[in-house]
Specification:
By secondary structure, this protein is an alpha+beta fold. The protein has one domain. It is built from 2 helices and 2 strands; from the N terminus they run H-E-E-H. It is elongated and about 45 Å long.
Length: 53
């Protein structure tokens, strides 16, 4: 899985066999997004705390 920078999905990356270009994914418990923003990660963690509380 490859999270390429937003709007910079190069053909070379898409042509790599058995790899998928994604918008976001969770890695080691943290949300990684291609935009570089952490806003959704913060919202996700707040929601996890609400559920646990």
């Amino acid at each position: 899985m490859i999270a390429d920078r937003e709007y910079h999905n190069h053909r070379e990356i898409k042509s790599i066999g058995r790899c998928e270009v994604v918008q976001s994914f969770v890695y080691l418990g943290s949300l990684i997004e291609n935009s570089g923003s952490c806003e959704n990660e913060i919202r996700r963690r707040i929601q996890q705390v609400r559920v646990a509380y």
